[in-house]
Amino acid sequence: MVKEKISETSLIMPITPEFVERRIHITRGQKVMLDSDLAELYQVETRILIQAIKRNLQRFPNDFMFQLTLNEATRLRSQFVISNDGRGGRRYAPYVFTELGVAMLSSVLNSEKAIQMNVYILRAFVKLRELLTTHKDLARKIEQLEKGQREQGKDITAISQAVSKLITEKMKIKDAIGFEV
After folding, report:
1. Contact 94/23 with Cβ under 8 angstroms?
2. What's the whole-model pTM score?
3. Roughly what angle, to the nearest 10 degrees, separates helices 46-55 and 99-108?
């Protein structure tokens, strides 16, 4: 009896926003998803996904989708264990899709599953954008606190120096007992 592998995207396991978020990567300064990850989510073969896109290439300009360079693909292979060339795996660099490209996929793949997945994926992109914005706000607030702390440190140093100066002057006055000639 052969055990069937149950993937995270099967109907048995529900797809969570976290599952989708883990498949969003930063490449060339953009948040993108790999063609193979999208194919898995849409439950189609990667080659079928790419064929549908190539038939509608005018819908996918460079800011929607682009093919990774060999260097970028090699880095992904080492990070995400994409199969090596010549061993039954991919023979070309993967395509990646920006948020706009994922949105455009819904017009190319019209199945009910594709529409549901698009909703999940776009929500994940929005959540990630909100997280990044929150982190920027926190970083700005921390920077303001550090600036205030530096200014307070300068003030404390000036006060400390003034107190030290007063103490040394007072000591000189106490030492002078008697007449000066």
Report:
1. no
2. 0.58
3. 80
Q: How do the domains of the chain map onto residue ranges?
A: 17-138
Strand ranges across the sheet with 95-97: 24-27, 30-34, 95-97, 65-67
Percent of the chain with pLDDT over 90: 3
| Per-residue model confidence (pLDDT) at position 88 | 47
Q: Is 49 helix (H, G, I), strand (E, B) or coil?
A: helix
**Letter for the amino acid at 140?**
R
**Type of residue numbered 14:** P
Contact 60, 104 (CB under 8 A): yes
Out of 3.10.260, 3.30.450, 1.10.150, 2.30.110, which CATH number does the structure's domain 17-138 have? 3.10.260
Q: How many CB atoms lie within 10 A of CB 73?
A: 17
Tell me the H-state helices in the chain. Answer: 17-21, 35-42, 46-55, 70-80, 99-108, 112-175
Query: Which residues does the chain have with pLDDT short of 70?
Result: 1-14, 17, 76-89, 170-181
pLDDT digits (tens, 9 = 90+) for 133-143: 777 777 777 77
Name 45's Cβ contacts closer than 8 Å, sequence gap at least 6. Answer: 39
